[in-house]
Amino acid sequence: MVGEEGGTYTVQVSDGLTLNAPKSSLTLRPEGTPLPRAVFANINVKNSGTHSEVQVLLPERVPFTVEQQAGQGGSLDLRLFHAVSDVEYIVSDVPTGAVRDVRWVQDADGVVRLHVDLNGAPWGYDATYGADDSAERNTLTLRVRNAPAINARQPLAGRTIVLDPGHGGDEFGGAGPLRVPEKNLTLPLTLRLAELLREKGANVILTREADTTVPIYNRPLLAEAKNAELLVSIHANALPDGVDPRTKRGSGVYFYNPQARALADAVQGALVEKLPDVGNDGVHYQNLALTRPTTQLSILIETAFLTDKSNLRTLMSDTGRERLAQAIALGLERFYRDAALKQR
């Protein structure tokens, strides 16, 4: 441990790399304790139905990272630190799930990289150790969501989507010149969006259905608990004080992980097509609390600018919010339909 701030430790995991980790996930040992050196020989690949799993059987827990490689295909790199691979073979289930192939490389002394080739772009992934009191305590499992079976004629039927009306309760969000808080505009818009998606057969879960405070990190945790395929957070943008409000307007969609780019593109495309008068603020790559989660495809939609008079009129009118909800629903439907056609 080489530093700390708030609830986070900074840990040096190799000569040239430090990582930030929640204090709750680490146990500090006395100074001078030898660093772990986990020599492992077993990697298994399992298909568990909704997910494919890459299981690394370790003698003790070591730090790790997971990174998705951008591109049309799909692959993940799982890096293990303070580890040495002695793997001679890898046992895989019949490769009908998300994982196509696994290879390993000893990148440096104490750094092993598992390269996981996927059957297309992932629909979500996570990596965790087994429970502390279980026999799998030291087994690191990389779970990759298998592509759902989608009906191209009814692409939203049976899909599980978590919708997140931005802010709420004590969290007011932004405000425009009329001082109407963002939280009061995102809720009715998201409730209407939920109705539209349910009419087309989607299973929709909302992070809030009233003016209540929901901690920001509880929102993606709900999506994970519900095994949702998508987390869609609905917001309204605003410029800070002192910036000319005439300089920025339009809808924009934010993503962080490459797996969510196609979803962001589909929603932004529908917004621009159906609301050209609102404007096009583009697709943004940005590391945000609600775009960072990887367990599902996660995007954040800034529907319009509270600080632009015309955009604000759209947000404050029933007709404007209806147009926004219809456009987002269309974008989600197109995303799923495109995914279904690629499965053929």
UniProtKB/TrEMBL annotation:
Name used for this protein in its record: N-acetylmuramoyl-L-alanine amidase-related protein
MurNAc-LAA domain ranges (all copies): 220-333
InterPro entries assigned to the protein according to its UniProt record, in alphabetical order: Bact_Sporulation_Assoc (IPR051922), MurNAc-LAA_cat (IPR002508)
GO biological process, one term: peptidoglycan catabolic process
One MF annotation (Gene Ontology) recorded for this entry: N-acetylmuramoyl-L-alanine amidase activity
Domain of life: Bacteria
CDD domains listed in its UniProt record: MurNAc-LAA
